[in-house]
Amino acid sequence: MGNIKPNVATESGMPPDSDINPTTECVIHTKASPGDRKNPETEVPPAASAPETNTATNASAPVANIKMVPDTAPAPVDYAQQESAIATAMPETSTDAPQSIAKPKGSGLDKFKSKRASAIANVETLVTALPIHKLADAKDFVRLHPDEDNYWSDELCFVSVPIKGQKKDLLHLIEENLAMDYLPSARIMRCRLALATKPYDTFFLCQVPSRNLDNGFNSTSLVACEQAKRLWTQATSRKDEGVEAYKVDKARSEEAFPEPKWPTQTLDELITSTFGPDRMIEDENHPALRRLIGEKPKS
In this predicted model, what pLDDT tens digit does every residue of 58-105 receive, in sequence order? Predict the structure, then answer.
């Protein structure tokens, strides 16, 4: 049987059934992309699947040297221009500085943020122990509670008791009978207590004179207390002028300070909170009374 020659049409101009010289090159034109960096002359395409032929025929057939030649030469690539375009598209980042992560806007936790001072809803802060002194000792403008029936006490009995470690004696409430039985009258002090405040709700218990009103200090102090129910009032001693009395003044403007926000606790509650059981002398064995009469503390 004669050799079977493949019927391959080429661009060399040879007829399909002509003999193919083993050294003859078959040229196939392909399209090349302008940006293709590969050399088309050195690129070898993957082998195409050949149709099945007789084994003997394939063994004797010469192999053609096929080159891929583009129809047009590739345009030269400007690598510097490409690198410049990439650098423009990608902003510079420094590996030295820490990269901050943008915080997302409109966090879902915003509605849970704490925005107010610590407080319990609808619960008033209770006033505990209050200072006790005369209106003039405030050394400031003072207001007294205008409700005299509920926030001015009756006349009460007091004694001052020396306390170890303290420079000033501490005022105690005492039952009148005990005071009369154990103490000289000069040690017993009688006055009323009224709820009072300095500007901006600085509360205290004001000693309101109830006896010896012929004394200039007592009488002018009582005048100041009465005026302070309506106006911001200040009392200043005139002793340096040789006058046994207080100078009573009112604030020049009625709107100089905001109106007091009086506590809702009763006067009895405020007085009890201020003195407590340790400062209320109710029997002869109370340590404060035994201290006043020079008696050994009862164990």
Answer: 444 445 555 555 555 555 656 666 666 655 655 555 555 556 666 556
How are beta strands 246-250 and 156-161 bridged, if at all?
unpaired
N- to C-terminal Cα separation, the chain: 142
User: How many distinct structural domains can be found in the chain?
Assistant: 2
| Helix count and strand count (H, E) for the chain | 7, 11
Q: Can you name the residues that pair with 157 across neighbouring β-strands? A: 190
pLDDT at residue 146 above 60? yes
Residue-range definition of the domain harbouring residue 61: 8-76
Q: Which residues of 6-45 are buried (b: 16+ CB within 10 A; e: fewer)?
A: eeeebeeeeeeeeebeeeeeeeeeeebeeeeeeeeeeeee
> Could you tell me which residues come within 8 angstroms of residue 125 by beta carbon, excluding any fewer than 6 positions away?
119
pLDDT the model gives residue 1: 46
| pTM of the predicted protein model | 0.60
Does residue 37 sit in the same domain as residue 143? no
Same domain, 70 and 191: no
> Do 195 and 71 fall within a single domain?
no
Total count of residues recorded for the chain: 299
Structure tokens that stand for 165 in this block:
């470690």
